[in-house]
Design a protein that fits this description.
The chain is mainly α and 45 residues long. Helix content is 82%, strand content 0%. It contains two helices and no strands. The longest helix is centred in the C-terminal third of the chain and has 23 residues.
């Protein structure tokens, strides 16, 4: 599969997804940040 074919398939999949609002994206980013911080604390401890 060529790079162009992969890019086309990726764009098609993205167009089928429901749009993400800014608040949803921020909420997800905060969640991921807190999860990554808690996992680093566990490794150090």
């Amino acid at each position: 599969m060529s790079f162009q074919e992969r890019a086309k398939l990726g764009l098609e999949r993205l167009s089928k997804q429901s749009p993400v609002t800014l608040t949803m994206a921020r909420k997800q980013a905060r969640k991921l940040k807190s999860l990554s911080q808690s996992s680093t604390k566990k490794r150090r401890g």
